From TrEMBL:
It comes from the Eukaryota. SUPFAM superfamilies: Thioredoxin-like. Its main location: cytoplasm. This is Glutathione S-transferase. Belongs to the GST superfamily. The gene is GSTU22_0. One of its GO terms (biological process) is glutathione metabolic process. GO terms for molecular function: glutathione transferase activity. One of its GO terms (cellular component) is cytosol. Its EC number is 2.5.1.18. Keywords: Auxin signaling pathway, Cytoplasm, Transferase. Is involved in the conjugation of reduced glutathione to a wide number of exogenous and endogenous hydrophobic electrophiles.
Amino acid sequence: MAGEVVLPDFWPNPFGIRVRIPLRQKGIDYESKEENLNKKSPLLLKMNESYSLANPVLIHKGKYICESLIIVQYFDEVWRDKSPLLPSDPYERAHS
């Protein structure tokens, strides 16, 4: 499944860490692409709508998702068969 999930990221970025930890917790195979946030690659500029921010972008089957918390929620929706990352109750999820 590597190549199906791609994470362009800058390793010390805390928002990228927020995405990498759940990827490992869920056991999702992914390809990491190291980025220089001072000189973003054409791929990252194309995918990331907030050029000035250091938001991670997840590419899954050619489609992209921005913002670390939205990506974590996406993991729970797509990989339901693996242990959940967030509570199922909407109120509890909002406060997690």
